[in-house]
């Protein structure tokens, strides 16, 4: 293998910079270091040699030649050339193994080289020490010492790399520049990774450039670029492609690297509807879909089409991914695409089968079930479908679906069941105004005066439409209502936790009650007053105003800021939060200050609904918010972080999030129980017991008692 002496100097220069970096902590944006001269090792105390006639210890080369070990001979020639650029190896290697007049070989030297050849380095060192004990003047051949030191340095460097001691890797490489040759590509790869792990990407690039410039093995060159993909920014990897050798006996084929770069670009665009991949990159991924047989490219192209308004093609691709055993991710995309195509019944049946495979699959099932129940007019659903939805909603305590079940029951004349579902939704989400309004309507229909008055007393100041109900305002005076005959529906199942009271005769009113959307208060021409109540009203009004148009997937980029804002709230009401984010983004980009504030608020709520707390926090900062909203969003974000940490068993983080939340708003009983259980898991039994007892006194006796019993059992105080 041909090596260029200057290339070795470049490698030494790179490692020399590493030593400086260890002392100064410099980063990866430094200019290339000046190349120091290559070191000239001593030659057994021989007098100084002229550069034209170096005295070189060829004992190792002579030994390998005598053994007929061609690979070792070539490696030793490469090493000697690196150390002595003016040295020329014999044209006839047989001269090394039996030239006339050569001194007879020392049996010990041959034994040492044999041990070295078998990688028994410790035995070589032991034999040298033993000989020097009996003959203090004896010295082993310098080439053998150098070879031993090189092997030992390689081992130290490898061990340091395997254990993540990156500074040690650079230090060893700096001390042993003889390792940095194409004969030791693995060492060069490890050095490059060490630079990357110490935030010196330009030095990493320099090492890879050295390999691609000087090393000829095609497999090693391709592997170098594959490693670069893991640690270098994409532009630097792209720049390395210029070293591809397209001619010669062993040309390179870096096509797989170009394909991977294209795949990555399309993947980024598949996650962001605002990014568009080039036609060339899309063609590359299409080719991978057809030729690779793998699910990865299919999923990338499926999500790209989904987020770029091509659901028909996306559905085909997700089906292909499922056929290739892509698993939950493909199932999630397939269900979401069916929903985007408004094929909600198919989406519900499909998503139900996958609901327990991953948390994302459970979320999409609940979203699809909620959308299915929320259609206007309500669809004819089989008892089997309702029987699938109800147990999952109860198990997951999903308030949006409970509210949807309430409206579905109400609009199909199952008023008692509707009331129970609205109560359930409020027990899971106490600030859910639409559920409170549904509860007010259903208790009024059932002539449940006590229940109706309780809802009004709690919500009059927060909900204009509930106040209108209490004041006897006729919705027909605000908006014309066209009554439609109810479609016969299967009997709904009430929530198991709700005991249905005896139903009294309903008050005299039309047989077919208007839907929730038909009693909305219509916005007048007056300026919109930004209060929390009005924002929630606007959310419901959007659904009334847009009707079934909201169920159709469309790109909001062509909408005005106000229309995009209205569509965003409509999508939120339809429980399609990720689509609502796009609409809110449009409103933020083009709206007035007031519109931007409301859109940023809606965008935060959309991300919170999907448990994307970090994104919600960023969205909240896109426009100034009122103090009330800041508190509301902050409390919601911290609540979700606490619950996520608790589910993952990160109890210290759970307590930290709960404590931060408690600075904003009082801690309700369900979160107090989470705090108590976290203390119990951390072994802080006294703290846990105090909270369980405090909660027990507020009416949560069963849950609190379970916690107290758990403490007694863990501490061995439980009596059976």
From TrEMBL:
Key word Coiled coil present: no
Region ranges (Disordered): 25-56
Composition bias, Polar residues: 45-56
Top-level taxon: Bacteria
Pfam families: TPR_16
Keywords attached to this entry: Signal
Coiled coil spans: none
Positions with biased composition (Pro residues): 33-44
Protein name: Uncharacterized protein
Signal sequence region: 1-21
SMART domains: TPR (SM00028)
